[in-house]
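Thread amino acids onto this structure.
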């Protein structure tokens, strides 16, 4: 009872402490094991709602697949479950995996957007971008001399740069958004995803607010 009371007091305090945090894009990094049951997927929905409530307009979620031999099957199954559960969120929803793309844009021009990648990492994304560019070179649409950062970025699947990356349960990162996230702020917590609470989310945002971003300088 005391723990519950303290949490009810602490959460509003944390929310006040996050006021003014300038986060447009946030990224959450998980593994397939984190969402192997319905509880983990419901937590995803909560995370998205917490972000929207802080006026974070773009939420990205990367779910790494541990067993490369089953990426195709497992990613498809996970994608279906997530799409069913998150289809009611107040914003656009896109889910990517290897060779698969699902989108729910029935919400119209909502200011909020969620992009989920299941096993489709940054190295894969760069390979796809390189192939597209080489096809255009081969077709004579561009020359090798015209290839620059701006062109590469235009061919990437995910065209945003996360301000804050949250990794739950470990201090290890994956290769997701290796191009886009070069200047992102990283936040690691030893709290496992199943135990991740709103106050853990607010702590991450509060920590971000306190930092002085240098963008590589």
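Threaded sequence (217 positions):
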């Amino acid at each position: 009872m005391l723990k519950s009371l303290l949490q009810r007091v602490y959460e509003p305090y944390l929310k006040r402490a996050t006021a003014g945090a300038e986060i447009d894009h946030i990224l959450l990094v998980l593994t397939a094991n984190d969402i192997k049951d319905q509880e983990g997927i419901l937590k995803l929905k909560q995370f998205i709602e917490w972000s929207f409530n802080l006026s974070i307009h773009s939420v990205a979620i990367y779910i790494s697949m541990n067993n490369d031999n089953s990426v195709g099957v497992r990613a498809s199954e996970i994608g279906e479950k997530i799409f069913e559960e998150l289809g009611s969120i107040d914003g656009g929803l896109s889910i990517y995996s290897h060779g698969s793309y699902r989108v729910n844009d029935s919400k119209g021009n909502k200011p909020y957007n969620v992009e989920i990648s299941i096993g489709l990492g940054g190295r894969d994304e760069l390979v796809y971008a390189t192939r597209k560019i080489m096809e255009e070179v081969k077709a004579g649409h561009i020359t090798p001399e015209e290839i620059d950062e701006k062109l590469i970025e235009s061919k990437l699947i995910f065209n945003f740069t996360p301000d804050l990356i949250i990794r739950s349960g470990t201090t290890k990162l994956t290769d997701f958004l290796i191009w886009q996230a070069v200047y992102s702020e990283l936040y690691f917590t030893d709290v496992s995803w199943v135990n991740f609470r709103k106050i853990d989310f607010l702590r991450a945002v509060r920590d971000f607010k306190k930092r002085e971003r240098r963008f590589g300088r």
